[in-house]
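Running this now, will post back.
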Amino acid sequence: MKTIRIALAQINSTVGDIWGNAQKISDAIAHAKDNQADMVVFPELAVTGYPPEDLLLNPQFIRDNVMATEKIAQGCVGITAIVGFVDHQQDIYNAAACMNEGQIRFVCHKHYLPNYGVFDENRYFRAGQTASLLNLNGVLVGVNICEDIWYPQGPAHVQAFRGGAELIVNLSASPYYSGKSSVREEMLATRAKDNITLIAYVNLVGGQDELIFDGGSMVVDEKGRMFERGKQFSEDMIICDLPLDPVFRARLHDPRWRKEKEYESTIPLERWTFVANKPTQTPLPERRVVSRSVTPFSGLEEVYRALVFGLKEYGSKNRFQKALLGLSGGIDSALTAVIACEAFGKENVVGVFMPSRYTSPESHEDVRQLADNIGIRLITLSIEPLFETYLSTLSVEFGSGPHDTTEENLQSRIRGNILMGLSNKFGSLVLTTGNKSEMSVGYTTLYGDMVGGFAVIKDVWKTVVYDLARHYNQNHDNKNNGYLIPDHIFTRPPTAELRPNQSDQDTLPPYDVLDAILKEYVEGGKGFEEIVALGFDAETVEKIVVQVNASEFKRRQAPIGTKITSRAFGKDRRMPITHHYQEGQPQNKIHVTTFQEKRQ
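Update: finished.
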């Protein structure tokens, strides 16, 4: 039986660590060779890390990346490797180097450069013009990069139908959002069936600022069935024997193969043929279904793992070993705390409780119980003396009028100063605890609860915060019986406790209503009238839309946080701070949002 033994090296590259990444790639090549692989494939831009952004505008960065790729090739003997790097030929290209016997044999360029959502590849790269086909010891292999596989009439179609590729390998750096893995799997199954070919897809794993790459590399057979699957949120190497006779047999029985071969594409096809030193193989058993014990995460568990992974990656790659956060007795800080414990270890997490005159006895008890349950150190520092000093200092200027959001926000800003002071002294990463619902409508305080280095649940809706916290409790035992996150934190009304008897619902609609509207507006891109047509109250929708638009200046100053939805604030949604367009305002109703209405 005609086979090829392939290794998919799902590695965690760090942006800019060119020589560290090169060493990791070389080690993986050696491991694949030890396992008698004919070919090992690496993720997109494995040498530079993804996305390198404006590092690509530095000529020395480009030269270093080329030198590192050539160095990798020199050590690539007895096996063929396909490695993602930046190619330099008058312009720069997102590229894959095919190397063996100590040299780079050919380079293929990415065709489709994404320029939507979090992607900016048109800013940096020139698009490839030709499709590449490798004949490796009689096995026809098409090589393409990430976005190229998403297009039905893209390079893969040319490689399969005009070139006869029996196997398509795709180098990818596909960022995570909840449910993305199933979208990829469905797409790859469709491409494999349509092109009657095996597809080996290797995806980057790791974190880069707000993005995480979840791995989940996979091999799909010519009928769209899962053949092998890699782990999520960890490095992995998939090594398997791919039988190619079933591809030939399927093509004999499929009339599309003859008809589509007549299809003329405008994409030129480059053919590369060479015989590599083929190691003596002891064939692995033929496998037509998943045989590794890898079960992908799904639902709340996948999101929870993504949040832990994103924080862990950000902390380790930025050399933070400890984390610090404010604990309020609310659900947001409780969820952030348990995520921090998994990312850093509970011994490296400190919670800071900063009560004021408005802090309830229940908050004192909930914070203490949470800290005891999850085993972190708790520091209690009353802000009351500082608050009194602030009020006294500002009393003449403020006058004798009633307290408003100004005095409320002073408390939050005092807490932010305390957290940053502790961070500066002890080198801990300050974690903010605001969720996506609050960030959307500006229910946050600049230089107060927004102060910090990383916003763990910035892309998590408030309703999902509750769901994740319940999920955590159900999956983590407490030796003292009961749940680790105290029951009372779930049942008490959400409150910032910045004034007497305050509740979030004094200012906001119930979170189930708020989140439903925000999802349609922020993630769904629907307009005012479309959302109202779904059955929501027009006045409520109008108020929320105005709040979202008026809060862009806050979000621009917020710390980054892990992206887990299809459209997160930041790179995904780039709105001007200064603009006069107001969604949902009827022509006969003019309203100008004043600076005072923007809750700071």
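The chain has two domains: 3-286, 300-507+551-567. More later if anyone needs it.
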